[in-house]
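STRUCTURE REQUEST FORM
Protein name: Triosephosphate isomerase
Source organism: Cellulomonas edaphi
Requested output: structure tokens
Priority: standard
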Amino acid sequence: MSTRTPLMAGNWKMNLDHQQAIQTLQKLAWTLKDAKHDFSAVEVAVLPPFTDLRSVQTLVDADKLEIVYGAQDVSAFTSGAYTGEISPVFLAKLGVTYVAIGHSERREHHNESDRLVNAKIKSALGAGVIPILCVGEDIDTRRAAAHVQHTLLQLEGALEDISAEQAKTIVVAYEPVWAIGTGETATPEDAQEMAEAIRGRLAELYDRDTADAVRVLYGGSVKSSNVASIMAKPDVDGALVGGASLDPEEFAKIARYQ
Ligand code: PEP
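Status: completed
Returned output:
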């Protein structure tokens, strides 16, 4: 029996300005409250754009919400001449719990390498912000049946020089690129295959305790209609949800996956 608390994280991507963020978060909180959601059983997080974070913090604090929040990216540096970058220290000061690192959209549009992902993970950990490390293969890699090898190489690169103590706190999100925003979902068996492989590699890199502590999420066109079958898999500990998290009622259903 796993002691890992499932995590349902909504990646809003570049959607919802700070006013829309408040409305969406309020509606999500009301819907989960109506459903008597037990946050100690399933953690719920939203990852808004940077410019929404202060408003989200204000609402969470004022209404004592149990929903936690995160950012979608972070700088590899803590301060200095890095125009346009956001320090992990600033995120921590805004009460941010999580930060997505190495999302496939950043790897694709901003050429983020495993080396940079590794530097960002260290930077987030240094400020006490929990990385949600995103890994996963594109369609050509899957067709070539090289998806496991590819994803585990991304994992290893991202975790270079990260201690077991630190690794235990990290969340890994397996997100096959071909399933992100496409409406095409990996099968629950695909999600389990990779989650198990990720956990197996963590046990090799560290030890069994560390591997058993790390939460592995699945991401890629998760909806209320497919979440339960994915969550039924033993190595899947939650979901990173993009498009469907913009609809608070749908995201609340996903978070409850019943
Ligand atoms: C994501 O952005 O991480 C994601 C999984 O998106 P979607 O759910 O829209 O496929």
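Reviewer notes: The longest strand covers residues 130-135. The chain has a mean pLDDT of 97.
Form closed.
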